[in-house]
Amino acid sequence: MKIPETLIQKYNIPVPRYTSYPPANFFYEEFGASDYIKAIETSNSEWPENISLYIHIPYCSKMCHFCGCNTQFTRDKDKMRRYTEAVKKEILMVKALLDPGRKVSQVHWGGGTPNTLPIELIHGIMDTIRKNFSFTSNPEIAIECHPAMLDENYTEQLVLAGFNRFSLGIQDFKQEVLDNVNRNAPKVPVKEIVGWIRSYPDTSVNLDFIYGLPFQNKETFTETIEKAVEISPDRLVTFSYAHVPWIKKAQKILEVKGLPEANEKLDMFEAGYDILTKNGYSPIGLDHFARNTDELSIAYKNRKLHRNFQGYCTRETTGQVYALGSTGISQLESVYAQNEKNPDKYVELINKGEFTVEKGYRLNVNEKIIRHVITEIMCNEYVSFDETANKFNTSPNEIVKVLNYTPELFKGFIEDGLLQAPGEGIFKVTPTGRFFIRNIAAHFDPNLISSTKKFSKAL
Ligand SMILES: C[S@@+](CC[C@H](N)C(=O)[O-])C[C@H]1O[C@@H](n2cnc3c(N)ncnc32)[C@H](O)[C@@H]1O
Ligand code: SF4
Predict the structure, then answer these.
(1) Is 3.80.30.20 the CATH classification of the domain at 23-362?
(2) 115 lines ligand 2 (CB under 6 A)
(3) What fold does the segment set 365-449 form as a domain?
(4) Where are the chain's structural domains?
(5) Which of the listed residues 57, 59, 64, 247 should we mutate to test ligand 2's pocket, taking the one with most ligand atoms within 8 A of CB?
(6) CB-ligand 1 contact for 67 (6 Å cutoff)
(7) What's the 447 CA to ligand 1 centre distance in angstroms?
């Protein structure tokens, strides 16, 4: 796979990542706790019926300079305990508003670094969830872990706590790359850590990598991904490094060390893509890869792939997301609601019995249509105006009116070989188009035209 330089020049512009529609920087502060309470009650009669719980742990014991996540440095165990006590209280507050007949299909722990917590604090939250909710038959219980902080005993305890999906942030296998972004390497080979996890039945492993960091180039990234293939994870992500120094000041340090150019980044991505696709992995969306036999690959082939802030999921596992913890974003059918970002303030408000929502967004029907089209493009690389009209009980003409769409506007993508239009109102992203999927999605978005928001670049 080789992307022509002309396409890179043309399409490497700032565009949203569309982990949500509208993106989180469109949320407004007038949306507060009372709106969230009403939204939870309304969500009981909305689709999907299942519940996803997202637990945010905003702590890391060392800060990586590239990090774009909502987290802070701490090693203070008391602080962590106070925080997890607040999360347990918030679980009970949310539960009181939920229909008891609804089941949990997904629990996702993210951060920050959930495995900075002493294991008993993790058990405490999982016990609270189990006591208060019933689960679907095969729930996904996932945790993002920093491999440098995992040992065999902690891993076993995570399995005992109920986790069956482990995502390890590897980023790169090269010591020089890790040293220059202030990140510790794992103390034992990643293969061994994956072996511990795999020794328990029904577990699955994802590995995260980033390309676009100082001291990375096509050769080093090729070696890193070849090593990843030897470990044979079920899933793997190659994130394009998102450089947003106007939000994350520490990223400026990387500018001094020397960031690869867009074409070098693309070389790395292409090299990784080629290795993975030749070794039994299907590309999913922009940057995810799953073994051809993995349920994500199967869902993608059947156009049943879905996505939330926590990543890709199948339609069966996706529930409306209720976020717990500071900065967590709840993703209900009609509403997004983001919790207070400051963990200390979050704890203070929860201890007063208050929800901590600091901003949110209520979607109208037109925005749900745009969200559907963008999600279809981002996940299934396909959209049909007819099928969208059926879903929303309207006509294809009405769908077109809601979108930023005229045949003229999309001609460029078709001529550049990024998009195919195999029928009236049907669009399919080509293999080359996958690299520019955010540009294609953004083109359907009428709200982006008038927006002055800042985004990271497409590549
Ligand atoms: C919450 S972290 C994963 C768990 C743990 N904190 C760790 O780093 O291993 C989520 C992932 O986001 C990715 N990430 C963080 N900052 C990023 C950035 N600026 N651009 C792209 N990906 C980023 C990393 O690959 C990281 O593994
Ligand atoms: S990448 Fe992970 S470990 Fe590093 S600072 Fe961000 S959240 Fe923490």
Answers:
(1) yes
(2) no
(3) Arc Repressor Mutant, subunit A (1.10.10)
(4) 23-362, 365-449
(5) 64
(6) yes
(7) 28
Owner of token pair 């299934």: 380
For strands 104-111 and 357-362, give the pairing.
unpaired
In contact, 154 and 114? CB cutoff 8 Å: no
Distance 23 CA to ligand 1 centre (A): 19
Query: Which residue has 């890790």 as its token pair?
Result: 178
Cβ of 311 below 6 Å from ligand 2: no
CA of 212 to the centre of ligand 1 (A): 13
Residues with Cβ within 8 Å of residue 391, at least 6 apart in sequence: 372
Beta strand 382-384 with 426-429 is antiparallel
Alpha-carbon distance of 296 to 306, in angstroms, equals 9
Residues facing residue 259 across a β-bridge: none
Spatial neighbors of 120 by CB under 8 A, at least 6 apart, are none
List per-residue pLDDT tens for the chain, 459 residues long.
778 888 888 888 788 888 889 988 899 999 999 999 999 999 999 989 999 999 999 999 999 999 999 999 999 999 999 999 999 999 999 999 999 999 999 999 999 999 999 999 999 999 999 999 999 998 999 999 999 999 999 999 999 999 999 999 999 999 999 999 999 999 999 999 999 999 999 999 999 999 999 999 999 999 999 999 999 999 999 999 999 999 999 999 999 999 999 889 989 999 999 999 999 999 998 789 999 999 999 999 998 988 888 888 887 778 899 999 999 999 999 999 999 999 999 999 999 999 999 999 999 999 999 999 999 999 999 999 999 999 999 999 999 999 989 888 899 999 999 999 999 999 999 989 988 999 999 999 988 755 556 656 656
Q: Is 68 in the pocket of ligand 1 (CB under 6 A)?
A: yes
343 lines ligand 2 (CB under 6 A): no
- Ligand 2: centre distance to CA 16 (Å): 22
Side-chain half-sphere exposure of 35, counting CA atoms within 13 A: 20
- Residue to probe by mutation, ligand 2, list 56, 59, 63, 244, most atoms within 8 Å of CB: 63
Would you say the pTM of this structure is higher than 0.90?
Answer: yes
